[in-house]
Design brief:
The protein is of the alpha+beta class and about 375 residues long. The chain has two domains: about 190 residues; about 140 residues, no CATH class. About 55% of the residues lie in helices and about 20% in strands. The chain contains eleven helices and ten strands. The strands form two sheets. Strands 5-6-2-1-8-9 form a six-stranded mixed sheet. The chain has a four-stranded antiparallel sheet with strand order 4-3-7-10. Strand 3 and strand 4 form a beta hairpin. Helix 7 runs parallel beside helix 9. The longest helix has 30 residues. The chain is elongated. About 40% of the residues are buried.
């Protein structure tokens, strides 16, 4: 393949990726997850719910009047009645066989976090002994969406992770052992972390840019380890609320990191020292991962388990990708043509895709 043809192919590949990015940029790091903290006090069940603004926009697209894929405070206020109808039809409560009418007390746009929060209230005819909560709203959300629910009743907390196949929860006063509830939450978040990295195509593109130039196994492990340690640090800082820059800054910065790696591949002579640049870029990518958790407004009690488990899932997913990709890259590099023109062609595509994605995200952020 000539250099001109390689550049042509790589440019077409980058433009195809950019077209995909244009469709998906608004949902770059959204996790299919929502949270709910419920309390049974006398005859009333109170609930505090959180989800990503993007999830609400996909569930109720009529609310998104400016078509930016997000629901702002003004849009949420204007669509309050529609939100109330959908939410109360999407979460139903039955106490001892009798329905508990619901009401939406408050809907708040958490614009800094990219999320929305709701306060709901269900008034039951009598003080309930047996409560059944159903979540048909899960049918209107992404197929893999999970709802992390925690119910406080008579001083006891019960936890359950619900999805489309398990959308009903009956509470009869017998709380599950705390360890079992914690393990269930942790396992669900690990799976979510794996899914997130496998569908996080911008992060995968960055990793491809790092490994495509080859190098010794030791240098590649150092590069990936630096990236892993760095994004773990910022994921923890942001998800716990210590420090979290705006996604309007983070998302374009991630795109720039992709473009930079693609360009740098033309000049890398010693891959053993590349960890010095992957570490600061890993810090940026970690904020991208963290934004996914911040959007749903997890209650403080759920943050530690969710954070550790989600990060573990991300690392497992990343290791799985590398376990497949590294042998393929190393085998491809044994071919002389790929070791020169092939690497340059792939790197060109990565650089162009990162640059185009940067522009797309910058426009979306503006």
């Amino acid at each position: 393949m000539t250099s001109r043809r390689a550049l042509h192919v790589s440019t077409l590949a980058a433009l195809a990726l950019a077209a995909f990015a244009h469709e998906r940029v608004a949902a770059a790091h959204t996790v299919g997850l929502s949270s709910g903290e419920y309390r049974v006090l006398g005859k009333v069940l109170y609930g505090d719910l959180g989800m990503a603004s993007r999830e609400l926009a996909r569930w109720l697209p009529a609310l998104d009047t400016d078509h930016d894929g997000l629901i702002g405070a003004d849009e949420l206020a204007a669509g309050h009645d529609a939100v109330a109808r959908a939410l109360l039809a999407g979460i139903t409560v039955v106490a001892d066989g009798k329905p508990c009418p619901g009401a939406l007390d408050r809907a708040t746009a958490l614009e800094a976090e990219g999320g929305v929060a709701f306060q709901v209230r269900y008034a039951c005819p009598e003080v309930p002994e047996r409560v059944t909560m159903a979540f048909p709203l899960l049918d209107g959300l992404a197929s893999g969406h999970r709802h992390m629910a925690r119910v406080y009743r008579a001083g006891k907390a019960q936890v359950k992770v619900l999805d489309r196949e398990h959308a009903t929860w009956t509470l009869d006063g017998a709380a599950a052992p705390p360890r079992a509830a914690t393990l269930a939450t942790a396992w669900s978040m690990i799976k979510l972390g794996v899914e997130h990295i496998l569908t996080g195509w911008d992060h995968l593109l960055f990793l491809l840019g790092l490994i495509i130039v080859g190098g010794s196994l030791r240098s590649l492990v150092g590069v990936v380890s630096a990236f892993t340690v760095a994004h773990s640090i910022t994921l923890a800082l942001a998800a716990t609320g210590v420090f979290a820059p705006s996604p309007r800054l983070v998302e374009p910065a991630i795109a720039l990191s992709i473009a930079y790696v693609g360009v740098e591949n033309f000049f890398v002579e010693d891959a053993s020292r590349r960890w010095r640049i992957t570490f600061p870029f890993g810090l940026i990518h970690g904020f991208g991962f963290a934004g996914a958790l911040r959007e749903i407004g997890l209650p403080h009690g759920q943050v530690p388990v969710a954070l550790v488990s989600f990060n573990l899932g991300v690392e497992l997913g990343q290791l799985g990708v590398l376990a497949v990709a590294l042998p393929l890259v190393m085998a491809a590099r044994r071919a002389p043509a790929f070791g020169t023109r092939g690497v340059r062609g792939v790197s060109s595509a990565i650089a162009v895709a990162g640059a185009v994605l940067f522009v797309v995200r910058l426009v979306a952020a503006g």
